[in-house]
Amino acid sequence: MQKNTLDDKTIPDKQHWDMAVKFMEETLREKLQQTESKLKELTGPSTSEQWLSWQYKTEQHKQRDQAKSELDKILSREPSHKSVLAADELTTVKKNLHSQGVEVDQEFIKETWHHVYRQHFVKKSLSQAQECKKGFYYYKEGFSDSGVSNT
Q1: Of 35, 82, 94, 150, which one is least surrounded by beta carbons within 10 A?
Q2: What local confidence, expressed as pLDDT, does residue 151 receive?
Q3: CA 113 → CA 9, 70, 77, distances in Å?
């Protein structure tokens, strides 16, 4: 929605453009922080936190962490992956986890995927928002990404 707002020809000058980009960045950073906090809650304390704070991972934390690792592999292979896992991808993740001694159901994987994908999507969106800083000239001149005039 914010990206569409920038596409509207309502931003009169660079200062307003920069304010709009800053708003997008702040909003996305907040969403990223929330998402990473939720993932941390699901996967438990990091190795350093376990050593320094005498915290331990529960069995579910360990399972979630291993599922997250498998799902991260999918996103690293296909950064533009859709928001939903295909049935064969669910089966592959489940079998990979089973081979590691982790028994989880598909709902567990889907729930983990939701948070992993959200983190990936918000990071990608934040990167795009940062690229928007450079786009005011093109916006003002009416050029698209291909260099062809929109007017």
Answers
A1: 82
A2: 44
A3: 37, 10, 15
